[in-house]
Write a structure and sequence with these properties.
Length: 299
């Protein structure tokens, strides 16, 4: 990263810190220590070193965004945190528990880019099923489902089938379902990527309200610089593959955030600084050798 970008980022980070330096250390919900992941055997020509030595702590109630060029390992890192992939190196703890190659469904819920609602069930039936898998007593299913639908203003769609809703509405329901299962941690992999910009903005505002209300810890992957600034408490900028942490940018703005935040000069400054940090990595990712021919940087 060039000196000027560094200076710009550290200036913004200083603004972000404000007077919080005297507050007690935050509780850590997710800790990654030297996480490295290689797909395939190191000697195989198809082997890919996806992540290298990623160390990161996510605070309780924080909205943390992973930003980086395509193929830099963002989804891999999210899947590792969710216990869906066991890293080839390093350690992960979620709420103090060390992950041992299995998900923690009572602690962590996922939201993916595509709606994962069962098309042959109504919205309410989909919610009941999620709560059933979560081990919630039957008598609490409908109350939990309606409360979650209310939180995104969609109670009137409880009896609809997913196919009767627009893509944006389905994704809004998907987010509501992930709230409904009541886990303290939400992992979201480009959940709004398939949506138009206006719908993304509305769902982003929903999410910010949700964060303020529930205090959930959210790790979110996006390609959108504006979405990252609007939603995040901290943005982790990753390098081209193998993904490492290039820099972390703080956004000091309380949740829920209003659309007015987007027209503040600070918002534009943060977005520009993110782009400056990312630009070289995107170029590198575009000219990198194909998978399986990466430079060996670890034994
Ligand atoms: P991102 O989400 O940042 O776009 P991914 O985490 O999906 O990137 O992938 C990181 C790298 O690992 C890419 O080069 C991708 O091709 C490779 N990769 C991802 N999943 C697998 C897999 N299951 N097997 C082999 N390689 C994979
Ligand atoms: Mg991805």
């Amino acid at each position: 990263m060039s000196g000027s970008v560094d200076a710009k980022l550290s200036g913004l980070q200083d603004i972000g810190r404000g007077s919080q330096s005297s507050t007690p250390a935050p509780e850590i919900t997710i800790a990654c220590r030297n996480v490295t992941h290689r797909f395939g055997h190191a000697r195989s020509p198809q082997s890919v070193l996806a992540l290298e030595n990623v160390s990161l702590e996510v605070r309780r109630g924080e909205f943390l965004c992973l930003l980086g060029p395509s193929g830099c390992g963002k989804s891999t890192l999210l899947n590792i945190i969710g216990g869906l992939v066991t890293p080839t190196g390093g350690e992960i703890t979620v709420r103090g528990r060390s992950l041992r190659g299995e998900p923690l469904p009572h602690d962590v819920a996922f939201v993916f880019q595509e709606s994962t609602l069962f098309p042959w069930y109504t919205i309410l039936e989909n919610f009941r099923l999620a709560l059933k898998f979560q081990g919630v007593p039957r008598g609490e299913w409908d109350g939990g489902a309606i409360a979650a639908l209310q939180s995104v203003g969609m109670t009137s769609f409880a009896q609809h089938y997913p196919g009767q809703l627009s893509v944006g509405m389905r994704q809004r329901i998907n987010v509501a379902r992930s709230i409904c299962v009541g886990t303290p941690v939400l992992l979201m992999d480009e959940p709004f990527a398939a949506l138009d910009e206006q719908t993304r903005m509305v769902l982003g505002e929903d999410l910010s309200i949700l964060l303020a209300k529930t205090g959930k810890t959210i790790v979110f992957v996006t390609h959108s610089l504006a979405e990252a600034v609007f939603l995040s408490d901290r943005i982790v900028v990753m390098t081209a593959r193998p993904g490492r942490i290039k820099t972390i940018v703080e956004v000091n703005e309380a949740h829920p955030r209003s659309a007015n935040f987007m027209i503040e000069p600070r918002f534009g400054d943060l977005r520009n600084a993110l782009y400056a940090a990312l630009r070289d990595e995107i170029r590198l990712a575009m000219t990198a050798p194909p998978d399986g021919q990466d430079e060996e940087t670890t034994p």
